[in-house]
Structure formats: structure tokens, C-alpha cells
């Protein structure tokens, strides 16, 4: 019994596993296996023989009962691959041996021939078992992810409201929040979801003769109201930028006529007038507004920061303006400190121009605008300039605010007229089409009747066809037929299931009419038709939704902005930088996909896709404006590829310091699909100490002196050390910072590392080459992530095998990213086989 | 024994309204958020002083309390209060500080946060990633016992929005319960009546019919699915039935007017104003019998943190102080504001009379964190303060090292009248230290 528990523990704690199995599941499986199937059949297979031969020679000396290195014992590992946990454990063994991480450096290495025999035996066995198991049912049903459900109602109903507002977040697994197993559904979820479904139903079901609420309203200085620290000129309002919402402006007497999406346009400019004064060499001093006395205490400090800012940025940056909704008229909210919920933001630059943002407003809500671009450190708002008292600092100048909306595709939306006749009778034929559209597959009579029943029920009590139809739409949106994407339950459904899977994979949206009609005729199952459709889907603009959704999850981009970097160390970090860094990986992935470039380009494209803000951050000259463009890079440039993206470098830091461990884990997880286990339960974490002169490398060295820590950390830390030349917001550094203002040179950065295979590198460029020298590992990892995204589950061992075959054939060809995705879509994998 | 000086119902309501605003005006600058005139009227659903039924409030700080300024050096009753206890000094007799308690086996830094009230952190692999499977939390066990007859079985609140994995309260299925952090929304939920109860009832029952319909359809669909898929759909149907039950409870309560309190006008603009407002609403909810069990999370994000007029940025960053003295000082300043909010809340409960004493006497208030030391992400020796609830307080109790915090939970539940002698990893109880 103890032995089995030990094996169970191996799966949890063995630190190099590619796949891990839930402890309990694993225990019960193994116990069940031991009770029912001793595994005699497997013992006679070639795999059993080859596995024993190989491990006796190369593994047993460390992984037996005497040493149990890495908490793993190969002598206790069964060879029965029918058992999923065992198969996964062996897959891990093979992975490590194939990439050269085991046996460790310094031990005799297996010959290529030995390795091949072992691997072949494993693969034959896996295939045999895969065939045997192909009828086993797997999880096919999958709830729409949050973004998919929003895209679906936007596409199918023309509403601009979201179904996902305020829903409890879904569990994120390896960065992905769209996995079938974790797309849960709790009572809390359903409660909010139903409320959202009702809002959308109210939005799209409108009586034909109701008046069009869409308007464009323009507000100029005369009808823009203002809070404190706002200077009113003839043509402009000057708003002091701060985190405080007291300093705001709002359109007088505006109230949203209807719940919906509104377009707010701001004609404005923004700049730091103190910076302008300093740079122009003018005389000025802060004054206290109330007493009129001068306030010089902070001037020096301010001057230093402003100059530091000016020097680091060398440009007039975009500063963000926040838009907040409130239910009460702003002026009634005690006049000065409105609360409200943030509904949107607009970047505003130094030149006066129009900028637009779309926001959601509830019926009856109004909004106010305040500038939030100011540095988190605040200084007095008023100064004497040439003897005159003026509002100074980061100022937003507003000329005009325009509100347009609510935005809807058509007015009125077509559904009421289509579904109800003049006698207020529900029309069954159009209703069937409507439901089939929402459910994305043909709808039978019984289903149509069921959903029609709610209409009659409401008509009985309320006599209002609008109310009846709204409840019908609410029910359709709450239906499992809407909310879940299902696998085929028979041959008939296979084409529809494939149409849905393709559309949600490559568009993150519902299938369009072309896909649905090809599913209806079953032509979609024809390989040529399928290939043409995949090409069409990838060429369509909607594929951007896939790119954004996939990169955001694969690279955990949602974490960007979770933690504000320490403003003392990184005063130049602003919202514009944050928004830009989040965009960079998406654009790179899109470019590589669009041009069908080699997958390796994701790491080393030879160009960077950046705008001015990022270029400044990266120290690249000659990029002007906020639009992203391709900038050619030298071969030695650390930028361009994912390893030089500020987004990754920032989210793997704690806002203050870098962490080679976290960055190392990022590399293992995202580029190799091989995350390490968390530290064992009995190890207390290191408490960082920044007072002494120790570097993080020195602290980790101590950690690695402990044998149990070293097992994992020798795999993790080197990849992080290679990135040490990037600070906690991804800027280049040759030295650590020190001193009170973090502006003095500290110890020099050491960015050397050694791969687990024993290859030395110095810095990110050499490390990048080391990773690309094992590019198959990277390609295979990316393909596995794409599968995960498309199917909503981890591949099984057999599927993993099929994916690797697709990767290998892709590598024999051009190795293009688009080709890889096409091959995945065309393979039986996407049909759940 | 009711005192002859007890105010009548109307006076009491006025008192509730007045005490609602008065301590606030003195203590927090954002009093603009409350209307000055308390609104009193008929049908407040409350007669005379509040009953003395047992209640429970659990407060969890995501980023812990700086250990160097939390636990006193001395044990017993004559300890010297460290900086973070100072704001609570005048309440010394009303609470106990407990050191050396934690959840043995729970590690993983911030992942210990959801374990604070459950004692369980069960990392589970899905493929190669870890997700947390949690178990029922202390407050939810209490809610099962105390929540049957109140309008809300329990309330989950927050000083700011809280992500699901940082949730304090988890139900028996291991699902995190979302917390309300917007005071306006909370105020509307708790204290604003439907304009037309008939219309609301009709709307609710139509909503229930919608759910009946989709549930029926799910059953039809389920018959065509494989067994693994059926399980997914079962989860869907359970969630639908759950909402139906909630709707029924809502319809049942529609005829009972909500208690009347001073009107909340607007949202606060700083972290601690928000926390104070939420706690004020929590006190009112306990006082007016809306619920008997509340959890309040203090996450590491949210509105700006203001110390006086100075904005302190980067709370999470400060928690990783790296022993830098100036950063530690700022962190302690932030956490002192947590302590002040707690003190205001305890004062508030103490000021509300019940038929047998004051509201604090019958309300257990647990304050603590699932993280022992945020700087190192340690989950050992958690900061724990227990106030009220009729225990014998006034001491700093140092337990044996690595005593399960669940032992305290057992004592708390028993005091509430829940017959349970074990909770998650408990190995006993701590009754002897609490005079229970």
C-alpha cells in the first residue's frame, strides 16, 4: 500500500513532469489497477522489455529505493500504459531523456541508437492502446468562454451589450480560461448571467413604432460643468490631472436615454505645464491657493522628478483620461467627490485632437471625465508665474465633448417584426430560424414549441408581446443549447460540431451562414472544402479575435497592469506604456500568422513591432507616433521576439525587483510547455532582503546549495538569469539600481547561464539561440497550446503523439505558423478523434 | 432583561440613523457619501433593541499584517501593544490575540488566501496546471446553522473587488462566493425596497419560469450526451435550480419591507472609506436582522489608499518590502489604517444595544490572514485576532507552534451552538484559552 502512495506522490512532486495528475485521482486509479489488472499482458510487450533495458542502464542508479532522487523511483513504475497515469509518467521520462536533461550532465549518456529503440517501443505501444481506447468517451461539451459569449450575442443579435458583465471569473489554467473542465457554472454565475441575458433581451426586442433614441449631443465650454481645480477659459477648460475625482468635468443635464453603448468623443490636449516652464527657463513658484503664500518646500523635489521624466521620455507622452458613470447628476453628489464606476479611458496627447471611446451606460446614468495621467506623486496645483497665479502641472485642456448613441446596428432591431404578426401571434417558422441561429445548429419542432411556451405564459399574465418575446430571448440565451458548444452525438451532428469548433477556434465567434450551410450539406466534412474554409476563416478580420484571445491566454497578458510598478523606481511607467506593451505580442503573433512565417520568428523575428512609447522604453530611435510599425533590428538586438517584450518582463517581476525564478518558470511553461512543480510543502520561501549588497543571483545560489532545491532550480533559474539585463519593467540595464532615488549604479548585472544540457550562454541573445537550437521543443509546445485552446482540454498521450507528428511534418516543410494551424484544423484531432 | 430606559421603536430608528452618521463625520472625511438626514419611517422591520442571537463576522486581509508590528512580545493581559494593535488599545478587553496558529500543510503564498477560512489548500492538477479545490469555509458552516430565518443566509463583502481565487468564502461544493464591494450596490440590495412589490413578484416569477424552461430543455439534451458530458450539464442544472431557490426566497421576502436607514448617496473614493462604508452597512445588516453571518475581504488592490491627504501607492509592492525600513514604515501605515477600520467597526457594534447587552457581545469578529508574512509569502504563524462573541478576552495567547487554526474555528462554531467537534485539519479546540 505504501508503495502505491509513493507512486502517487511522484506524480505530484516529481518536479520535471510534463503532465501531472490530480493526486487523488491518481491514487484511486493506481489502487484500482492493482486490484483488478496486475498488468501481465503489458509485461510481455516489447515496451516492457525495452523500458527495463533502458532504465536499468541509465536511470536506476539514482532513481531506486536507495537514492530516490527527485522523489522519483523508476523501479516502482509500472509498464502498463493502459493506465493513464503510468503512460503520462513514461511520457515525462521520455521527454526529459529526449531533450537531454536526463541523465544529468556528467553521467554517461545514452547513444542515439539506444534512445531510438526505447522511443519507438513507447510509440508503438501508445498507438496500439490509442486504437483500443478510441471509443472511450471524452469530454466534448464546453461552455462558451466569456469573450466567446459576448462575440456571439454581438454577431447574432446586433446588440452592443455584453453577456459576460460581472460574471464570476473563470478559473485560469496555464493562462487559459476557456478549458472545458474549468468553465464552471455555479449558482452565482447563473444569477448574473440571467440578469445579463434579460438586459440583452430588453435591448433587442423593441416595438416597431418606438421612437429612435439615437442622438448626437455636443457639449462646449458653455455647457460643460466642472469640479474644483478646473480653470474655465473662453474656448477651453483646463482640468488638473490627479487621481482624485474632485477635479472633473461633466456634460450638463446629460442622461442616457437607454441602456446601451455610447460613443464619447473628446476634443482635447494634455501636457505638463511645469515641465514646459522648467524647460523654457521661466521663473515660477508654487503657491498655496488658500493663503496665497508661496510654497517652496517641494520645488526641488518636483524639479528633479519632472526633469528625470523629461529626460527619460524625451517626448510629450500620451496621458490617460478616465470616464466614469454615475447614477445621480454629478452636481448633486455633494458637488465635489463623485464616486462612480470607471467605464472607459482615452489617451490624450499634446496636440489638440479628437479621440473617441465606446462606453456602456445604463439608462438614466450620466458620466464625468477626469484626467488620471499625473504621476502618482502629487504637487501643489497652483504656482505664481510672472507674478500671476495659475493652475500648473499636468493639465487636460478640453474644447468639446460629444456623446453619440446608443449605438445599435439597426433601429429598431428586426426581431420583433419578424417573430410576431399583427395579431400578436408568434410566428413559428421564423422562430425556428431564430433559435437555430442562436443555437448554431438545426432546431427540432419540440424545441421550438418549448421555447414558444414562455411567450404564451407571459402573454396570459401581461398581454404584452414585447414582454413575452423578451422572456423568450432571455430563455434562449440561458439555454444550454446556446451556452454550450457540443461534440457530435451522431454522424448528423458531426458537421455542425466541426463548424462550431472551427469558428470558435479561429474567430472566437459563432459560425457564419457559409459555415452553417456547408455543415447543413455536410460538405464541410470534405477535406478540400475544409481546407478552403480554414483559409477563409484565417483571412477574415475576425481572426484577430483568435489572435487576441489566444495570445492573451497563452502569454497571460491579462496580468499586465495588475500591479503598478514602484513609482519611485520606475517613474516613467505610465498607462500608455502599459497599453502599448500589452499590444506588442498580439501584433507579433498576428504578423507571423498573416505572413505564414516560421514559428521561430515569434522568438527572433529580426524586427520589432512597436510604437513611439515602446521605442523610447526600448531605447530604439526614430519611431514617432502611437501607431505600431515594423522596425528592422540587428541580429544582436535583444528585442523583437517574445523574450524581449516588456509585457512578459513586467508580469514576471513584482513591480519592484526582477525574479529569475518567475521568469525561468515563464520560459518553461510558455516556450517548453514543461512547468516545474511548486516548491515542496516543507520549504519556507526566501524572504527577500534588499538592504544588503546581495544580488538575487547570490541569494538563489544559497538556495541551490540545498540538494532538494537544486533538483528544480537548476532547470529553472538559468532561463531567468539570461533575462537579468531587463529590469522589472523590461528596460535594458547593465547595472542594478541603488541609492535613495534608485538612480545610482549598483552591482553589474551577470546574465550568464547554463542550460540543463550543459550549454553556456551569456545574455538574452545567446540564450535565445540556445532555445532555438531545440526549436522542436518550442514548436511542439506551441502546437499543444493551440490544441488546448481549440479543444478546451489537454491532449491525451495519443493526441499528443498526433500533434507531434503534425509538428514534424510542418518542420519538414516551410515551418510556417499558418500552416501549422491549418494542419491542426484539417487533422482528425479537431473532430475529437 | 430589557432596561426601562430603552427607547421606543421610533427613537431607536432615529438612534440607528444618527449613530450611523455621527461617528462617521468625526472619523472619516468622505462623509459626503452619506446623506445627513437619517430617513426614518414605518415598516422598518425592527422592534425595540436588536435581539442577542449569536452572529459571526470574518475579516480576511489578503496581504497579511506585518509580523514585526502585530504580535506583542509578551503574552497574557499586560502586553505592550505593537503599532498595529495601538488603534485597538481602547478595546483591549474585547479581543484576544492568538499567535502560532496556522494551517499546517497549507503553503503557496497568496494561494493560502482562500484557505484562510477553510483550512484547506488542495492544489489539483488539470493537465499540468494547478487549480485550487477548496472546501466549505467557517462562515458558510456558521451560515448553515444561523442563516435559515434571515433574509440573507450570509453576506460576502469586500473592501474592493476580489478575484475568485482570493475569495474568503467558499460553499460546500468548493465554489468561491463572490463578494460585494460596491457600497451603493450593497445599499440598494439591503435597504432599498422594490417600488412595486407586485411588479417585482411578477418579474421574479417570470424569471423562474424561464429557468424552469431551460432546465426542462437541459434534461432533454442530457439524454443525448455521453456520461462525461452529462456531468457538465448536471452542473448547469444544479446552478439553475440554485437560482430558482434564491428567487423563491426573494419572492417570499418581498412582502416584508427592508429596514430603513440613512440614505447612502454615493461611492467612496478611497480604499479605507470604502471599507468603512461597507463595514457600516455590515453593522446595519447585523443590527436589523438581515443576516447573522458576514465575511469581509481586504484585498491588495482597489481604490487609492490615502493616509490623510497623502496617497500611498503600490500596496502590494510595499508588502514585498525586502526589509527596507522606509518601505516597511509605509506598509505599517497602510496596515494601521486596516486596524483603525477594524476598531471603528468594533466600536460600532459595541454601541448598538441588544436585549442582553451590546451587539459585539453576541457577534464573534475574527480578523486575520491566510498569509503569515507577505514579504516571504510564508503561510506560517498567521496574524489572528478574535473579538466579541461572549468569549473571555483581553489577552495575547501564544499557542504551541503550528497549532491548527482550525482548533479556534471549532471553538467558535461550538460557541455559536453548532455541534461540531472537528473542522478540516483541527486536532482539538482552544476553549481553555477563551474561557469557553
Describe the structure.
The complex is a heterodimer of chains A (833) and B (436). In chain A, strands 2, 4, 5, 7, 11 and 15 form a six-stranded antiparallel β-sheet that branches. Chain A has a five-stranded antiparallel β-sheet with strand order 3-6-12-9-10, with no helix packed on it. Mean pLDDT of chain A is 82; it is low at 1-44. By secondary structure, chain A is an alpha+beta fold. Chain A contains 29 helices and 22 strands. The radius of gyration of chain A is 31 Å and the shape is flat. Chain B has helices at residues 9-27, 138-146, 183-191, 197-222, 227-253, 271-287, 315-319, 325-351, 359-362, 405-416, 431-434; strands spanning 55-61, 95-102, 122-126, 129-133, 155-158, 293-298, 305-307, 310-312, 363-368, 384-388, 396-404. In chain B, strands 5-6-1-9-10-2-11 form a seven-stranded mixed β-sheet, with helices on both faces. In chain B, a hairpin with a 2-residue loop joins β7 (305-307) and β8. In chain B, α3 (183-191) runs parallel beside α6 (271-287) and α4 (197-222) packs antiparallel against α5. Mean pLDDT of chain B is 83; it is low at 1-32 and 36-46. Classes of the chains: A alpha+beta (833), B alpha/beta (436). Chains A and B meet through α8, α13, α14 and α15 of A and β3, β4, α4 and α5 of B.
Amino acid at each position: 500500500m505504501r508503495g502505491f502512495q509513493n507512486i502517487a506522490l511522484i506524480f505530484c512532486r516529481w518536479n520535471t513532469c510534463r503532465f501531472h495528475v490530480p493526486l487523488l485521482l491518481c491514487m484511486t486509479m493506481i489502487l484500482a489497477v492493482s486490484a483488478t489488472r496486475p498488468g501481465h499482458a503489458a509485461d510481455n510487450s516489447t515496451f516492457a522489455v525495452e523500458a527495463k533495458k533502458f532504465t536499468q542502464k541509465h536511470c536506476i542508479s539514482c532513481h531506486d529505493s536507495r537514492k530516490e532522487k527527485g522523489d522519483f523511483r523508476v523501479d516502482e513504475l509500472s509498464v502498463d500504459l493502459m493506465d493513464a497515469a503510468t503512460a503520462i509518467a513514461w511520457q515525462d521520462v521520455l521527454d526529459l531523456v529526449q531533450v537531454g536533461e536526463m541523465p544529468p550532465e556528467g553521467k554517461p549518456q545514452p547513444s542515439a541508437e539506444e534512445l531510438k529503440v526505447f522511443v519507438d517501443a513507447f510509440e508503438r505501444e501508445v498507438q496500439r492502446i490509442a486504437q483500443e481506447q478510441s471509443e472511450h468517451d471524452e469530454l466534448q461539451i464546453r461552455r462558451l468562454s466569456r469573450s466567446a459569449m459576448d462575440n456571439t450575442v454581438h454577431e447574432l443579435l446586433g446588440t452592443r451589450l455584453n453577456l459576460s458583465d460581472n460574471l464570476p471569473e473563470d478559473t485560469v489554467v496555464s493562462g487559459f480560461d476557456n478549458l472545458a473542465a474549468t468553465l464552471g457554472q455555479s449558482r452565482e454565475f447563473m444569477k448574473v448571467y440571467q440578469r445579463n441575458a434579460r438586459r440583452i433581451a430588453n435591448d433587442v426586442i423593441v416595438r416597431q413604432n418606438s421612437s429612435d433614441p439615437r442622438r448626437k449631443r455636443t457639449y462646449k465650454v458653455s455647457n460643460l460643468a466642472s469640479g474644483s481645480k478646473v480653470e474655465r477659459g473662453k474656448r477651453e477648460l483646463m482640468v488638473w490631472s490627479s487621481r482624485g475625482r474632485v477635479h472633473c468635468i461633466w456634460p450638463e443635464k446629460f442622461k442616457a436615454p437607454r441602456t446601451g453603448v455610447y460613443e464619447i468623443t473628446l476634443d482635447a490636449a494634455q501636457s505638463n505645464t511645469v515641465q514646459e516652464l522648467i524647460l523654457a527657463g521661466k521663473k515660477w513658484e508654487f503657491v498655496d491657493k488658500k493663503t496665497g503664500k508661496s510654497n517652496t518646500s517641494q520645488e526641488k523635489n518636483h524639479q528633479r522628478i519632472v526633469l528625470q521624466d523629461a529626460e527619460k521620455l524625451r517626448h510629450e507622452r500620451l496621458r490617460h483620461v478616465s470616464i466614469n458613470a454615475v447614477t445621480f447628476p454629478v452636481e448633486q453628489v455633494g458637488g465635489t467627490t463623485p464616486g462612480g464606476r470607471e467605464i472607459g479611458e482615452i489617451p490624450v496627447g499634446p496636440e489638440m485632437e479628437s479621440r473617441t471611446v465606446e462606453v456602456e451606460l445604463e439608462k438614466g446614468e450620466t458620466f464625468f471625465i477626469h484626467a488620471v495621467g499625473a504621476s502618482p506623486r502629487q504637487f501643489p496645483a497652483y504656482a505664481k508665474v510672472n507674478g500671476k497665479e495659475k493652475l500648473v502641472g499636468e493639465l487636460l485642456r478640453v474644447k468639446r465633448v460629444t456623446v453619440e448613441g446608443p449605438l445599435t446596428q439597426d433601429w429598431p432591431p428586426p426581431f420583433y417584426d419578424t417573430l410576431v404578426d399583427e395579431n400578436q401571434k408568434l410566428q413559428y417558422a421564423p422562430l425556428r430560424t431564430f433559435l437555430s441561429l442562436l443555437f448554431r445548429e438545426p432546431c427540432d419542432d419540440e424545441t421550438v414549441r418549448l421555447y414558444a411556451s414562455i411567450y404564451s405564459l407571459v402573454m396570459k399574465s401581461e398581454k404584452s408581446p414585447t414582454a413575452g418575446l423578451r422572456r423568450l430571448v432571455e430563455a434562449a440565451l440561458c439555454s444550454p443549447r446556446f451556452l454550450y458548444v457540443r461534440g457530435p452525438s451522431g454522424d448528423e451532428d458531426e458537421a455542425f460540431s466541426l463548424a462550431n469548433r472551427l469558428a470558435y477556434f479561429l474567430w472566437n465567434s459563432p459560425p457564419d451562414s457559409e459555415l452553417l450551410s456547408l455543415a447543413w450539406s455536410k460538405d464541410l466534412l470534405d477535406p478540400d472544402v475544409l481546407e478552403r474554409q480554414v483559409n477563409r476563416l484565417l483571412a477574415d478580420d475576425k481572426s484577430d479575435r483568435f489572435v487576441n484571445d489566444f495570445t492573451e491566454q497563452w502569454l497571460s497578458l491579462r496580468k499586465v497592469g495588475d500591479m503598478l510598478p514602484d513609482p519611485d523606481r520606475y517613474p516613467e511607467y505610465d498607462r500608455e506604456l502599459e497599453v502599448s506593451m500589452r499590444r506588442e505580442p498580439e501584433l507579433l503573433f498576428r504578423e507571423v500568422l498573416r505572413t505564414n512565417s516560421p514559428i521561430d520568428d515569434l522568438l527572433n523575428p529580426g524586427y520589432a513591432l512597436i510604437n513611439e512609447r515602446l521605442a523610447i522604453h526600448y531605447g530604439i530611435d526614430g519611431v514617432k507616433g502611437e501607431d505600431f510599425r515594423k522596425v528592422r533590428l540587428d541580429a544582436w538586438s535583444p528585442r523583437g521576439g517574445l523574450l524581449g517584450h516588456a509585457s512578459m518582463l513586467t508580469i514576471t517581476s513584482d513591480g519592484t525587483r526582477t525574479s529569475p525564478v518567475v521568469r525561468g518558470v515563464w520560459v518553461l511553461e510558455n516556450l517548453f510547455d514543461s512547468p516545474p512543480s511548486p516548491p515542496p510543502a516543507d520549504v519556507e520561501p526566501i524572504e527577500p532582503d534588499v538592504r544588503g549588497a546581495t544580488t538575487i543571483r547570490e541569494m538563489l545560489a544559497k538556495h541551490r546549495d540545498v540538494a532538494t532545491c537544486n533538483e528544480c532550480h537548476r532547470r529553472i533559474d538559468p532561463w531567468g538569469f539570461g533575462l537579468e539585463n531587463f529590469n522589472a519593467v523590461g528596460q535594458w540595464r547593465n547595472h542594478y539600481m541603488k541609492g535613495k532615488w534608485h538612480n545610482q549604479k549598483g552591482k553589474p548585472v551577470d546574465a550568464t547561464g547554463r542550460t540543463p544540457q550543459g550549454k553556456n550562454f551569456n545574455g538574452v541573445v545567446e540564450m535565445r539561440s540556445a532555445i532555438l537550437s531545440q526549436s522542436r521543443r518550442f514548436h511542439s509546445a506551441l502546437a499543444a497550446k493551440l490544441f488546448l485552446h481549440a479543444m478546451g482540454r489537454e491532449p491525451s498521450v495519443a493526441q499528443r503523439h498526433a500533434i507531434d507528428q503534425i509538428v514534424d511534418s510542418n518542420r519538414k516543410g516551410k515551418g510556417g505558423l499558418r500552416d501549422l494551424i491549418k494542419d491542426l484544423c484539417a487533422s482528425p484531432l479537431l473532430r475529437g478523434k | 432583561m430589557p432596561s426601562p430606559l430603552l427607547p421606543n421603536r421610533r427613537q431607536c430608528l432615529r438612534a440607528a440613523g444618527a449613530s450611523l452618521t455621527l461617528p462617521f463625520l468625526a472619523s472619516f472625511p468622505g462623509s459626503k457619501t452619506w446623506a445627513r438626514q437619517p430617513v426614518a419611517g414605518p415598516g422598518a422591520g425592527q422592534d425595540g433593541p436588536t435581539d442577542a442571537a449569536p452572529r459571526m463576522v470574518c475579516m480576511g486581509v489578503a496581504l497579511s499584517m506585518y509580523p514585526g508590528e502585530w504580535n506583542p512580545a509578551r503574552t497574557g493581559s499586560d502586553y505592550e501593544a505593537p503599532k498595529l494593535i495601538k488603534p485597538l488599545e481602547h478595546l483591549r478587553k474585547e479581543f484576544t490575540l492568538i499567535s502560532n496558529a496556522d494551517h499546517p500543510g497549507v503553503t503557496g503564498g497568496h494561494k493560502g488566501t482562500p484557505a484562510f477560512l477553510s483550512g484547506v489548500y488542495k492544489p489539483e492538477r488539470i493537465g499540468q496546471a494547478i487549480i485550487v479545490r477548496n472546501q466549505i469555509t467557517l462562515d458558510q458552516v456558521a451560515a448553515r446553522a444561523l442563516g435559515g430565518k434571515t433574509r440573507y443566509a450570509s453576506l460576502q463583502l469586500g473592501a474592493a473587488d476580489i478575484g475568485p481565487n482570493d475569495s474568503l468564502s467558499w460553499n460546500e461544493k468548493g465554489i468561491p462566493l463572490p463578494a460585494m464591494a460596491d457600497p451603493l450596490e450593497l445599499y440598494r440590495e439591503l435597504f432599498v425596497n422594490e417600488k412595486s412589490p407586485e411588479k417585482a413578484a411578477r418579474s421574479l416569477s417570470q424569471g423562474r419560469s424561464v429557468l424552469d424552461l431551460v432546465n426542462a430543455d437541459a434534461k432533454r439534451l442530457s439524454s443525448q450526451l455521453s456520461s462525461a458530458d452529462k456531468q457538465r450539464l448536471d452542473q448547469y442544472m444544479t446552478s439553475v435550480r440554485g437560482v430558482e431557490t434564491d428567487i423563491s426566497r426573494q419572492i417570499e421576502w418581498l412582502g416584508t419591507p427592508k429596514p430603513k436607514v440613512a440614505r447612502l448617496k454615493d461611492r467612496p473614493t478611497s480604499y479605507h472609506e470604502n471599507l468603512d462604508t461597507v463595514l457600516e452597512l455590515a453593522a446595519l445588516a447585523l443590527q436589523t436582522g438581515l443576516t447573522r453571518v458576514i465575511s469581509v475581504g481586504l484585498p491588495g488592490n482597489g481604490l487609492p489608499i490615502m493616509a490623510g491627504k497623502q496617497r500611498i501607492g503600490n500596496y502590494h509592492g510595499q508588502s514585498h518590502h525586502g526589509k527596507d525600513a522606509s518601505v516597511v514604515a509605509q506598509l505599517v501605515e497602510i496596515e494601521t489604517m486596516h486596524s483603525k477600520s477594524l476598531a471603528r467597526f468594533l466600536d460600532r457594534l459595541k454601541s448598538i444595544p441588544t436585549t442582553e447587552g451590546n451587539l459585539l457581545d453576541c457577534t464573534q469578529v475574527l480578523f486575520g490572514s491566510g498569509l503569515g508574512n507577505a514579504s516571504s509569502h510564508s503561510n506560517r504563524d498567521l496574524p489572528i485576532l478574535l473579538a466579541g462573541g461572549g468569549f473571555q478576552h483581553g489577552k495575547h495567547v501564544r499557542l504551541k507552534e503550528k497549532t491548527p487554526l482550525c482548533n479556534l474555528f471549532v471553538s467558535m462554531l461550538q460557541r455559536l451552538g453548532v455541534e461540531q467537534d472537528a473542522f478540516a485539519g483541527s486536532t482539538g479546540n482552544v476553549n481553555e484559552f477563551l474561557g469557553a
